[in-house]
Amino acid sequence: MGIEQNKVIMQRYFTELMNNQDYSKADEILHEDFSGAAGEGIKGIEAHKQYNQGMHTAIPDLFIDVKEIIADENKAAVFSVWNGKHAVVIQGFLPTGKTFGFDMASVYEFKDGKVFRGIPRVVSDTLGLYQQVGILPPTEEIIKAHNDSIENKGE
Length: 155
Prior knowledge:
37% helix
């Protein structure tokens, strides 16, 4: 497959599968041997569907806004913003009801013109997510608390 076709496949992946949860044409997008590192690890199209349904159950208004796709013949890097509302317990944190939008960068591999391996390397702004939903204070407050603690040690 060519670079432009890989970009189209990645856009379909996020629009049709991840956002709309429309798996009616998943066999056109995902390789039958698809694997991903998300969650406990994903193996196959059905496992991808179950994982995605679980994410949408936890974050019903989840929307992944793809900002940029950089592709070559075998891989694509996707830069996106994941948006939603913190409405359920996530990683042990009670829901705050606040909305978030955090940056994510991930890499996907292609095989036979389909997404073969997903999210083997992920970079996300988890600190920003925790600050947006109120689990952690804004960076300025963290810096001030740190500086205050150092100044108070001299007393």
